[in-house]
Structure prediction request, 446 residues.
Amino acid sequence: MSRVIVLVGVIVLVALAASWLSGNPGNVTIEWLGWRADTSVTMLAFLIALVTVLGAIGYRMWRAVLLAPGRFFQARRTRRSRRGYQALSSGMIAAAAGDTAEAQRQARKAENLLEDASVTRLLRAEAAKLNGDASTARRTYEEMADNPETALIGLRGLLDQADERGDRAEALRLAEKAHRQHPKAQGIVRRLLDLQVEFGQWDAADRTLSEAVRHKTFPPSEAKHWRAAVLLERSRTAERDGEVAEALALAKQAHQLDGARVPVAVQFADLLHAQGKTKRAQKVLEKIWQLQPHPDIAEAYGALFASDTDLARVKRYQRLLSFRPDHAEGHLALAQAALAAQLWGEARAHLGQASERGVTPRVCRMMAELEEAEHDDGAAARGWLERATTAEPDPAWVCDNCGAAAGEWTARCGNCNTFDALAWHPPLHTPRLTQDAPAPALPASG
Ligand SMILES: [Zn+2]
Prediction:
């Protein structure tokens, strides 16, 4: 648009000048080095315009001749890089499809055609990996790790290789390095966290998670849940080191982040009680009990009133049961207290209530205890103990990853090292004896 305006402006100016010149005719005489030329002003203006136009055309032609070789090489480079990128993408597809020979062929082609080695290295590394050439892959990943643009891919490749070798310390070192360079890369944060957990580096894991929360690397609810687990482990460590105040502060923080975690609430309540804040501890336990009745809560609740008489403790558990009368745990906890207080009728009634919700080995063992204590009935007790071996298993802390059961909740599975995998439910693969199972054959006697 603006060019049109300029052009129109120039034409108008030329027309004005021509009309002015024709209205004001005159002669020009040039004398120079003994030469003399006479002409009109109009002719002189025309000659100046002609020289200007010819000069401009000449300049353009001269430039075109001068730049031709450059243009030629530029076009050649563009063609080469286009073929290079084609080889790169064909190679990537071949690598993804597992065609080792084709991936390697295309990798060599791409490296010959492309000037930027950083983009071809990944294909070279993938092809080497497919070919089982770990040392070439490793060298290539190291080259990539040294280049800021490809450092993350290089470090991830090295990290995968360390994982495959089972070199956990090297994996941790690489994950830390990758995390320093790319603190927001979600995959790296998760791997670093897992490794820190595996090595029991709870303080470092907490720092990693806090930073992830700041960067919004994970959904906030998930990050809070995880941090509560890590803070619980930090609290336990501080408690073991005799730093009770620190342990309490950490447990409190964990409880604030995730008020529905049973082991966190139990740790918080234990520490509150140890500092003489029994009323507050009781509130914490009663609140979590309402969410999820659990034997660990019942045990911690009993510990708050260790100096009570057996009878007084029965009253405490009656209160606890009143919050969740629908749940077997309350009946079991009360039955246990009643057994200790020799209130046989009360114990039997609540064991009956609990068994309506499932006759588990725990119910069987308590029934055996009751038969023995109340009636001195060894046969009935043995009957219950026998039944315990075939009953549906009690819930336990079970790893969602490997299925191993644990006596106590920990943030890391003691069997497979998975972070935050223990959940409270019946063991997954408990071998069950059924009546249909054939009896093992006895060796023939004689
Ligand atoms: Zn596990």
Observations:
- The longest strand covers residues 27-32.
- Residues 399, 401-402, 404, 413, 415-416, 418, 421 surround zinc ion (CB under 6 Å).
